[in-house]
Q: What sequence folds into this?
């Protein structure tokens, strides 16, 4: 009985549902990324389907909450020219670390950055004399940001992504 309750509890805690964009969110091809100004640049940030699948990727720029990116989503932000710090963060329960990715924004340009992550869990199972036990050795994760050319990014964004508003909108 206790084992059954534990399994049900684990399902509700660890499997809240896949992080996805609302079905009404427009696709990349249906959205116009704003034109850049002479004193600012536009940074398009996107996440394809990456682990951990179940959680939104929280993106902070220079310490300010900027976007919550479910799988296959993108957004953009206008930034002043210069060096900025993008922090990728996850809910504590995901086991993922926070990671900072530096980016240098150029005024008058649109830049594209694909935000990625990966997580792995080590597990062991022992079987002996009809008894079994299992243990999770631990989880490890990593995050990264990959700056893409416009043609590479447009191809990726067209294939995968829907627009989500910034958290400040």
A:
């Amino acid at each position: 009985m206790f084992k059954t309750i534990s399994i049900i509890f684990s399902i509700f805690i660890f499997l809240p549902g896949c992080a996805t964009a609302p079905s009404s969110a427009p696709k990349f091809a249906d959205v116009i990324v704003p034109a850049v100004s002479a004193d600012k640049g536009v940074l398009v940030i996107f996440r394809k389907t990456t682990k951990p699948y179940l959680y939104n990727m929280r993106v902070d720029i220079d310490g300010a909450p900027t976007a919550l990116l479910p799988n296959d989503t993108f957004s953009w932000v206008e930034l002043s020219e210069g060096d900025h710090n993008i922090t990728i963060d996850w809910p504590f329960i995901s086991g993922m670390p926070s990671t900072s990715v530096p980016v240098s924004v150029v005024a008058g340009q649109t830049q594209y950055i694909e935000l990625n992550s990966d997580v792995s869990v080590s597990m062991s199972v022992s079987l002996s004399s009809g008894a079994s036990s299992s243990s999770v050795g631990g989880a490890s994760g990593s995050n990264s940001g990959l700056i893409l050319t416009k043609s590479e990014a447009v191809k990726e964004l067209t294939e995968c992504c829907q627009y989500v508003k910034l958290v400040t909108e």
Remarks:
- The longest helix spans residues 2-14.
- Residues 40 and 107 are 4 Å apart (CA to CA).
- The chain has one domain: 19-163.
